[in-house]
């Protein structure tokens, strides 16, 4: 904006003898000028400079704002309006006020930000059009939050191998496996019995019963994905898919609790528990699924260590999961610590991927 307004020869001569009245303008870490105060004041009046633009005295090097230097030297410029309101609107133009042509040409379909905003902001509003009720309401709302989590994970964890279609297939495959196993097969794990025992015996039930069963459910879709893959899948890619498998499990568990346990609580408690089941708790399931995906990924890149890596893929999330559930009703602050350790573990694993790869290559 200022490049075309360099001082004239006369101004330069004037500047040599009057450097105490010259000001540099600083924008985006670049300096322009120097300019005399009256030129700077005129730029302010024309709207080319702002009073809070950064400035520097050409002689002393003192920094401040345009407003400060002009006020010190007796200048109080006022911006000249570009005509009346009607004239200003005409100058702006109807295409900028209501960009009808840009909407018609459908280029907005290529705007990822717009589509994300529409999905996040309007999905539940669309659901209001349909006469759904009961279990479907809870499931639809849970899916809504799952989509939000999915976009979050896609933004932060996707790799070149990640595909949206594969993500959707894995999500609903996890849902299918969850419904099949938790329709009765989960009762085959007799360690569930220990969850009814007092602490610390309950640790056995929550780790070997709840933890192992639920993390195995989230692990199965990852094993299917690896088996069907047409190329070696990066561990980071399987971390992403593990996160999505965890979110899919969180949707199922969230709905189950909302229609059973939460429904029996008072209104305030039920409201809080429902929100937790839609946000924070699915996030924890996702973390443990991501850790599982990390080790499954390395197991298939380095088959010599497959047995031990598969054991770690199941054991580490199951232990974290089981300990979190154990202390949730005994000393919740410990559960929060375990949740933080889960976050720290996943990020540390990802940061050490190259070192781990070198170790397995030896």
Distinctive features:
single chain; 362 residues; mainly alpha; Dna Ligase, domain 1; 2 domains; 4-stranded antiparallel β-sheet; 16 helices; 4 strands; elongated; disordered N terminus; peptidase activity; transmembrane; PrsW; transmembrane helix
Structure description:
- One of its GO terms (molecular function) is peptidase activity.
- It contains 16 helices and 4 strands.
- The chain is mainly alpha-helical.
- The chain has a 4-stranded antiparallel β-sheet with strand order 2-1-3-4.
- The two termini are 59 Å apart.
What's the gist of this structure?
This is RsiW-degrading membrane proteinase PrsW (M82 family). The chain is mostly helical. It has 16 helices and four strands.
The strand order across the widest sheet is 2-1-3-4
Number of DSSP-assigned strands: 4
**Over all CA atoms, what is the radius of gyration?**
31 Å
Class by helix and strand content?
mainly alpha
**Helical content class:** 55-70%
The major beta sheet can be summarized as: 4 strands, antiparallel
What shape does the CA trace take?
Answer: elongated
Provide the residue-averaged pLDDT. 85
Our count of helices gives 16
Which residues form runs of ≥5 with pLDDT under 50? 1-20
Order of helices and strands: HEEHEEHHHHHHHHHHHHHH
Number of domains: 2
**What percentage of amino acids are in beta strands?**
5-15%
Distance between the termini: 59 Å
């Amino acid at each position: 904006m200022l490049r075309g307004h360099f001082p004239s020869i006369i101004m330069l001569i004037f500047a040599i003898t009057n450097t105490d009245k010259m000001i540099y303008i600083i924008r985006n870490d670049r300096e322009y000028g120097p300019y005399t105060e009256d030129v700077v004041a005129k730029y302010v009046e024309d709207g080319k400079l702002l009073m809070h633009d950064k400035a520097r005295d050409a002689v002393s090097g003192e920094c401040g704002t345009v407003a400060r230097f002009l006020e010190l030297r007796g200048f109080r410029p006022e911006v000249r309006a570009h005509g009346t309101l009607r004239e200003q609107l005409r100058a702006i133009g109807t295409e900028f006020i209501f960009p009808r042509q840009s909407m018609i040409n459908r280029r907005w379909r290529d705007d990822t930000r717009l589509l994300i905003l529409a999905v996040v902001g309007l999905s539940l509003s669309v659901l209001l059009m349909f006469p759904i009720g009961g279990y479907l309401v809870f499931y639809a709302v849970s899916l809504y939050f799952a989509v939000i989590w999915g976009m979050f994970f896609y933004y932060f964890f996707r790799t070149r191998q990640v595909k949206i279609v594969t993500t959707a297939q894995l999500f609903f495959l996890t849902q299918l496996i969850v419904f099949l196993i938790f329709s009765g097969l989960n009762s085959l794990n007799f360690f569930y019995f220990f969850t009814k025992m007092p602490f610390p015996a309950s640790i056995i039930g929550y780790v070997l019963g709840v933890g192992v069963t639920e993390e195995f459910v989230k692990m199965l879709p990852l094993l299917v994905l690896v088996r069907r893959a047409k190329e070696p899948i990066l561990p980071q890619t399987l971390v992403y898919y593990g996160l999505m498998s965890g979110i899919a499990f969180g949707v199922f568990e969230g709905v189950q609790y909302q229609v059973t346990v939460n429904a029996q609580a008072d209104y305030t408690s039920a409201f809080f528990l429902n929100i937790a089941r839609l946000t924070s708790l699915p996030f924890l399931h996702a973390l443990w699924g991501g850790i599982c995906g990390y080790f499954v990924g390395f197991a298939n890149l380095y088959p010599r260590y497959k047995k031990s890596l598969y054991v770690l893929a199941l054991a580490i999330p199951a232990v974290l999961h089981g300990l979190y559930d154990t202390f949730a009703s005994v000393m919740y602050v410990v559960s929060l610590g375990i949740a933080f350790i889960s976050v720290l573990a996943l990020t540390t694993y990802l940061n050490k991927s190259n070192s781990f790869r070198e170790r397995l290559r030896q």
